[in-house]
Amino acid sequence: MLRTLTRAYHGALGTSIRSAAPALSPLANIPYLQAPRLDSAHDQSHVGSVQRHLQDAGVLKISLNFDDNDSHYLTNLIQGLHRWHGHGLPITHSAHRGWYWDIRPSQTVFQCPDHQARSETMNEFPWHTDCSYEATPPRFFALQVLHPDQCGGGTLSVLKVDNLLKLLSESTRAALQKKDYLITVPPEFRKTDNKDESIIGSLLSPDPESGSLALRFREDIFTPLTGEAGLALEELKSVLLGPKAQAEVVNLTAEMMPRGSIIIMDNRRWLHGRNQVKDPRRHLKRVRWDARQFGLD
User: Fold this and answer.
1) Which Pfam families is this protein grouped with (predicted)?
2) Domains (ranges, CATH) in the chain?
3) Model-level pTM?
4) Can you tell me the distance from the alpha carbon of 275 to that of 241, in angstroms, rounded to the nearest whole number?
5) Beta strands in 197-255 (DSSP E)
6) Confidence class of residue 126 from pLDDT cuts 50, 70 and 90?
7) Distances from the Cα of 258 to the Cαs of 9, 53, 104, 114, in angstroms?
8) 183, β-bridge pairs
């Protein structure tokens, strides 16, 4: 069953450079499917519908009509996308984790020894794309809600990359496509013992799959290597905070994403973030898949 989510929300997300006041989002135009049964993920027609929405919109919400704390539906769905549509299988999150990562606050038990990930805090997540530090970042990721924030926090905010890039100058878009950025791997996601694990790359790249420009972004791990690269990054951050970009933000509150909700996003076509978590019981699961080379070489 296909529906379209169309509700307006007040902006709830800050960024690494905070805006003066939240903006009002436009109507959310998010494709929406229901999964009536666990075995829906084995239905080729259902999986095909998921694929079409990801190709067309790059984002999809799925509502499960059954309990599935162990994410069997999502696992089977990804395997179906792999079998019938050529998606790569999920990536491991670090040297210590498998396909799934628990997004919930924790003060003592961390999923990566000796390092607390941002997802294990109640802190705000500034705007980012997942795995921006990878040479082959995953094209897709999914979040499954096991326990929504019932205290008014933890709102997921999303922004279509095309709507952001059209606000940048041509010179900035050109500079962001140059491999002039040192990108540091966060400690919790290192896959080697090298404490200085990093890559050098661009932040924008032509995407043959969508025909548009793909973006990777996480401000705190980027170091510009040239003056031009630094100016381009500053313009990107400034525009991201500006009223025109903020007017394009869609905020998905806990009421819109209750228990049993799954959001799937194209990690190169959408930015995402969240505001501060207020409910210590908030619990989501995350999985990332279909890793592809960022850039043409």
Assistant:
1) TauD
2) 2-291 (3.60.130.10)
3) 0.85
4) 15
5) 198-201, 204-206, 213-215, 222-224, 250-252
6) very high
7) 16, 21, 15, 32
8) 199, 222
